[in-house]
Design goal:
The protein is 36% helix and 18% strand. It is of the alpha/beta class and 458 residues long. It is globular. The protein binds zinc ion. Residues 64, 66, 124, 233, 269, 321-322 line the site of zinc ion. Zinc ion is lined by residues 64, 66, 124, 233, 269, 321-322.
Length: 458
């Protein structure tokens, strides 16, 4: 199957040379980009898509999320709290999660991500209530397959409950043995290390204040045996830094290093509070990070030192984080926040629009271990987005369409989204996906979750 996407106002390849082609075409063959053609070049194909009035970019990559939190967006009790108090407010509510809720929230989150130009997402599911079925991540994978998006879920875990000095309630924690068994089961069942993989599984104990050192060390050993990646929250807040210093005598990054939790197969969510030596160590070891500007502002966590991380050569990616601290799944809007948050710092720390695009595309692909994604060039997997440039919000901003999508209001929706050569979004919609019914079912599930919590305390 050969598809020609032709006559685009602009093709922004975001490749090593930063090629931008006006009026060019893109030839896609069997799920990969065959070639980028100049205006006027032709090719024999099965299907032609006219991209006049559109810009073509690589798909955006989201490297950190908690889909289930779309059920608890914007709760009044959590609107004005910092991370630890915010978590303590939400944990008892999340205790009521069940399989159906996880499936529904995954569908909402992935649909919103797709519509915002995301072609590849990770998720970090770490809440396994004792009453719920154990195979919650299986449900997420089913939904991702149904939608066709590239998906790299992580098997999250919590093992350090309140009674042992951790933050979460004991009954939301699991033993190391249960965590390891289920991690192994998911890897055996779903992990696909082929180049074209739509599904890969990674392992992700939750954070230094909710996981035992034993779980960290055993999980790392399993990941390295299985050839998957490792993910956790790190250096998100100063409260976390104090916790680590008090409990272990080490700063968060030092603690991770002592547990063999640094390296090119590891990425940390947030990494806000890093000192100069830690930034250099991230770069030297190839340890990656997910920048979550919206969540960091929402929870008052701080501004990550992205300029310094990029200059040092550390792998940096973009993520929306969970929807109870963002409270959206709009990845293009997140890219805009990244551009703007950097500019609350002194001018030497600013980022250009193209740098933000690169972090959001190839930066994410690298952090998730995929070298064949994130650019539009021959041989890359055909994960790409067509953006409509005719909207009112872009009127007068056409001199640099790539920057316009970040400087102007974020496009409410991508015009079209392709993953591995398949169109998943067309004309701003997911074909066959009933958005009204999904929102209704999701709202009912969210109400049921709050109701369970109320009854528990009645
Ligand atoms: Zn998170």
């Amino acid at each position: 199957m050969r598809t020609l996407i032709k006559n685009a106002n602009l093709i922004a390849t975001l490749d090593a040379d930063g090629r931008r082609m006006e009026g060019g075409s893109l030839l896609v063959e069997d799920g990969r980009i065959h070639s980028v053609l100049k205006a006027g070049d032709t090719a024999k194909v099965d299907k032609v898509v006219d991209a006049k009035g559109k810009m073509v970019t690589p798909g955006l990559v989201n490297t950190h999320h908690h889909f289930y939190q779309t059920l608890t967006r914007n709760l009044p009790g959590g609107q004005d709290e910092k991370l630890f108090a915010w978590l303590k407010f939400h944990y008892p509510i999340w205790r009521g999660l069940d399989e159906e809720m996880v499936a529904l929230s995954t569908r909402t989150a992935l649909a919103e991500l797709l519509l915002s130009g995301c072609t590849f997402s990770s998720d970090h599911h770490y809440v396994f209530p004792q009453d719920a079925a154990p195979d919650l991540i299986d449900r997420q994978i089913e939904v991702a397959r149904e939608l066709g998006i590239r998906f790299q879920p992580t098997r999250g875990s919590m093992s350090l409950g309140e009674s042992a000095g951790g933050l979460p309630p004991d009954d939301l924690c699991q033993s190391e043995a249960v965590i390891l068994d289920d991690s192994r089961r998911l890897l055996n069942r779903y992990h696909d290390d082929s180049e074209e993989a739509l599904i890969r599984v990674d392992l992700a104990p939750c954070s230094p204040f909710s996981v035992t050192n034993k779980a960290m060390v055993e999980t790392a050993a399993l990941a390295r045996e299985a050839g998957c990646r490792l993910h956790t929250h790190l250096a998100e807040t100063l409260d976390e830094e104090s916790f680590c210093l008090r409990e272990t005598g080490k700063r968060p990054y030092e603690l991770m290093k002592s547990l063999a939790w640094t390296g090119a197969d590891v990425w940390f969510a947030h990494a806000v509070h890093l000192n100069d030596e830690e930034i250099a160590a991230m770069a030297d070891s190839g340890t990656g990070m997910s920048h979550c500007p919206g969540s960091n502002m929402r929870l008052g966590s701080g501004a990550a030192r992205i300029r310094e991380l990029l200059d040092a050569g550390a792998p940096v990616s973009l993520a929306v984080d969970g929807s109870a601290s963002n409270d959206t799944n709009h990845l293009l809007a997140e890219a805009r926040l990244m551009l703007l948050l950097a500019r609350t710092r002194s001018k030497k720390h600013w980022l250009s629009a193209e740098e933000v695009w690169r972090v959001a595309c190839s930066g994410g692909a690298k952090v998730l271990g995929r070298s064949n994604l994130g650019t539009l060039e021959a041989g890359a997997l055909a994960d790409l987005v067509l953006w409509d440039l005719d909207g009112l919000y872009l009127a007068g901003a056409q001199s640099d369409p790539l920057a316009a999508l970040l400087f102007s209001a974020p496009a409410p929706r991508a015009h079209a989204v392709m993953v591995g050569g398949n169109w998943l979004v067309q004309d701003g919609k997911i074909p066959g996906f009933d958005e009204a019914a999904q929102a209704k079912n999701h709202n009912q599930a969210a109400a049921k979750l709050l109701d369970r919590h109320r009854k528990e305390f009645a």
